[in-house]
Specification:
This protein is an alpha+beta fold and 73 residues long. The protein contains two helices and four strands; from the N terminus they run H-E-E-E-E-H.
Length: 73
């Protein structure tokens, strides 16, 4: 089967104009100076907007313990 009304180049390109990828914006963490995504938690120190949100060392210890128990059982 063949399309009766083929989309013009202009119509096709206007539709595809929204498909472009955007570059991720990086900000410098005010606490540790590492780069992280804007409006996101810093994965290096666990702070957001100048406040400590999560303790990454404690979280890493929990993950390690969970992995060890999964291997043992």
């Amino acid at each position: 089967m063949v399309n009766r009304m083929r989309a013009t180049r202009s119509h096709r390109d206007n539709r595809r104009s929204h498909h472009g990828l955007t570059v991720v914006r990086l900000s410098k963490c005010g606490n540790c100076g590492a780069l992280h995504q804007s409006h996101r938690l810093c994965l290096n120190c666990g702070s957001y907007n100048g406040r400590k949100i999560i303790n990454l060392a404690e979280l890493a210890a929990k993950r390690a313990k969970k992995i060890e128990t999964a291997k043992a059982g």
